[in-house]
Q: What sequence folds into this?
């Protein structure tokens, strides 16, 4: 995926997952440095309802496959310690 | 949770999630430095079938609440870059 495009798309995500991909909320996961393919699988699972989550469903619903690839590339590219 | 007890319990997990919590397998997530509460929620969801995954279901099934608390504490305590 395209990291820059993913960053542009990530504005909404930052509220819960942190501007640097480290979540400020204990029940929401850090995404910084996570496995790119894992992120793609989870976003598709949320989008398609295979993985049920009331917060993530509306977030993932409008995403295209490209959006998902770009978001996954972006978060995978972030420093795992959030620097 | 108890980090040492979590580490003892994590032998099976290391195969897919890495001895240092950084997964060697692209479709499996890194756990090192992840949010403790998030990890507890996911392990319980896998155990109770709320989150469906054919690989994780048998892994989580036998875990007690204490096991889950200890595993979550252990992985949350690991260095996010796996050092």
A:
């Amino acid at each position: 995926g395209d990291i820059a495009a993913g960053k542009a798309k990530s504005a909404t995500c930052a509220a819960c997952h942190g501007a640097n991909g480290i979540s400020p909320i204990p029940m929401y996961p850090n995404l910084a440095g996570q496995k790119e393919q894992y992120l793609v699988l989870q976003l598709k699972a949320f989008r398609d309802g295979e993985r049920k989550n009331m917060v993530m469903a509306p977030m993932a619903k409008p995403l295209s496959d490209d959006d998902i690839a770009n978001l996954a590339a972006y978060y995978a590219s972030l420093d795992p310690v959030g620097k």
Notes: DSSP finds five helices and no strands in chain B. Chain B has one domain: 3-77. The CA atoms of residues 45 and 51 of chain B lie 5 Å apart. The mean pLDDT of chain B is 97.
